[in-house]
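Below is a filled-in request sheet from our internal design queue. Each sheet records the structural input a requester submitted and the sequence that came back. We keep these sheets so that new team members can see what a complete request looks like end to end.

REQUESTER: design group, bay 2
PRIORITY: normal
MODE: inverse folding
CHAIN LENGTH: 560
BACKBONE (tokenized):
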């Protein structure tokens, strides 16, 4: 029999799982218009009507699709429809048409203008540019009478390939047919990755330009844990791997906490939440409590600071979901990619390294103490079985830890700090004596250790929590935690990765906090190994030359 020569392409694996199916490319984006002759003045109003009709049709189509959906998927489509009918965007397009541009060119020019504005604003605004380009493409296709770009209708199973998926595309994915996602762009925290995690679809992002070597309908083997796309894979072996992966998925679905290793070593699994409804969902699942309540996410669109009573009301909703369990609440992590109008007063050249997190209180302590008062008020009446822990983001020095802990204790609150600045990890022995606990934020710890923007799709190979440099900082933190009897948790995306969770357990981390949907996968993997194996996995990862080698070595140990 002739040997099959398989080739592999690598990206960043963000959701584990194996799939083997034909590649299906998202329908291509329409060509952008080339410069055109000036439209005579008397035809310009007709041209604007054509633009309005096309964008109305696109908005109606999105709204109609949203009416068949529920929850965040429906919200995403409604928000996109809202952008198509945005008055500012339409007015800008009208201006270009009034200057003589055809509707197609005006659509592209108006979008470019908004994209430039959003990119200059940076952070979350910059991430919205994918949405803007998505509506431009839909309107362009409508103007030309072409099929709507985006997801194809397919029969049977397929692995969806795309340059990047728009929020509207990911919200309407048909998971009966689509068995995995692969994108050229995106990163571990991109929209595609978040939705794939929610849908438990194997997903690889940031593959780069080599993705174009994958042809429509070509059979591909996807390994979401390793981030590999294999072409020409052996069909029999591939089917076998898919079967094993489905068995694992079934074990995960049946897993019930509390989490422990095979030899009964307990690891607390907690949920990351943004509000009361996410906390209620977490309480229905396997979370033992909340490990990270990101309070700033409730205030992203607030122009004024809510009063202490108003804040307490919001926080109480999260506490109520876990009336008899631990809740770790984080004070405002405003700034960088999460600007909050009332907290971030100055424009900065380099906001990720600027006045963010606890630093916003340097010149505005009352902003922090009002939040602590609100937390204390919301936590009133919670018994000893429901401890309320409060932690500050972006702590860098022992002085900051002491100051924050003092303010917490004045209000009877248990005080902690996030370890997400490398300096805090290295100086853990000086910080911990002031603190009751620490929680490692691996997303930022990786960003700052590797000097790589966590939102950059080009740098996904650096912003990978498997980087041994990051793991060495975690090891140091755990050693000091053990010496000083200070609990050490992890609440970044690293805690959602089942294999990495074993490494973290081996390093001495006591609790892992992640999206509640990720917890059964972590719990089921921990149940398969003993503590000694976790320690071996940790040693292998620490001694690896890089993130990919660490992942490979640990996978070999844990999965054989
Ligand atoms: C982190 O940095 O790992 C973290 C948990 O905080 P956030 O992702 O909200 O910055
Ligand atoms: Mg952080």
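RETURNED SEQUENCE:
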């Amino acid at each position: 029999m002739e040997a099959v020569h398989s080739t592999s392409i690598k990206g960043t694996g963000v959701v584990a799982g194996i799939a083997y199916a034909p590649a299906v490319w998202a329908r291509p984006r329409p060509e952008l218009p080339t410069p055109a002759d000036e439209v005579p003045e008397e035809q310009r109003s007709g041209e604007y009507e054509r633009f309005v009709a096309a964008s109305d049709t696109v908005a109606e189509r999105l709204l109609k699709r949203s009416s068949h959906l529920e929850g965040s998927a429906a919200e995403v489509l409604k928000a996109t429809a809202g952008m198509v009918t945005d008055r500012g965007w339409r007015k800008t397009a009208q201006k270009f048409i009034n200057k003589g541009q055809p509707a197609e060119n005006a659509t592209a020019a108006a979008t470019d203008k908004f994209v430039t504005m959003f990119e200059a604003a940076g952070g979350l605004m910059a991430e919205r540019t994918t949405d803007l380009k998505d509506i431009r493409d839909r309107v362009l296709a409508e103007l030309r009478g072409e099929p709507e770009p985006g997801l194809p209708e397919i029969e049977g199973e397929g692995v969806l390939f795309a340059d990047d998926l728009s929020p509207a595309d990911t919200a309407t994915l048909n998971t009966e047919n689509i068995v995995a996602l692969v994108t050229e762009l995106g990163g571990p925290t991109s929209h595609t990755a978040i939705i794939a995690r929610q849908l438990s679809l194997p997903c690889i992002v940031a593959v780069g330009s080599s993705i174009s070597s994958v042809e429509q309908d070509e059979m591909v083997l996807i390994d979401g844990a390793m981030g590999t796309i294999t072409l020409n894979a052996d069909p029999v072996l591939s089917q076998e791997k898919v079967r094993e992966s489905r068995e694992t998925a079934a074990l995960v679905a049946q897993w019930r906490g509390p989490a422990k290793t095979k030899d009964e070593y307990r690891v607390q699994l907690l949920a990351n939440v943004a509000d009361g409804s996410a906390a209620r969902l977490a309480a229905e699942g396997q979370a033992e409590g909340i490990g990270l309540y990101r309070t700033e996410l409730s205030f992203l669109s607030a122009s004024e600071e809510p009063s202490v009573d108003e804040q307490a009301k919001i926080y109480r909703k999260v506490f109520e979901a876990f009336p008899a369990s631990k809740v770790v609440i984080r004070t405002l992590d405003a700034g960088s990619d999460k600007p909050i109008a009332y907290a971030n007063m100055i424009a900065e050249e380099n906001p990720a390294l600027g006045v963010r997190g606890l630093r916003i209180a340097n010149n505005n302590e009352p902003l922090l103490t009002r939040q602590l008062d609100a937390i204390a008020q919301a936590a009133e009446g919670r018994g000893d079985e429901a401890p309320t822990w409060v932690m500050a983001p972006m702590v860098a020095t022992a002085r900051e830890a002491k100051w924050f802990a003092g303010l917490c204790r004045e209000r009877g609150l248990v005080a902690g700090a996030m370890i997400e600045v490398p300096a805090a990890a290295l100086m853990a022995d000086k910080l911990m004596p002031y603190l009751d606990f620490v929680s490692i934020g691996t997303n930022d710890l990786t960003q700052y250790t590797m000097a790589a923007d966590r939102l950059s799709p080009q740098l996904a190979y650096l912003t990978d929590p498997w980087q041994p440099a990051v793991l060495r900082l975690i090891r140091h933190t755990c050693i000091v935690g053990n010496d000083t009897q200070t609990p050490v948790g992890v609440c970044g995306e690293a805690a959602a990765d089942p294999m990495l969770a074993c490494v973290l357990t081996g390093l001495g981390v006591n609790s892992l906090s992640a999206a509640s949907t990720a917890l059964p996968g972590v719990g089921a993997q921990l149940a398969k190994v003993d503590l000694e194996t976790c320690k071996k996995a940790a040693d292998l990862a620490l001694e690896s030359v890089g993130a990919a080698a660490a992942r490979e070595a640990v996978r070999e140990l844990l999965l054989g």
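SHEET NOTES:
- The first strand starts at residue 7 and ends at 10.
- Residues 41-144 form a domain with the Enzyme I; Chain A, domain 2 fold (CATH 1.10.274.10).
FILED BY: M.R.
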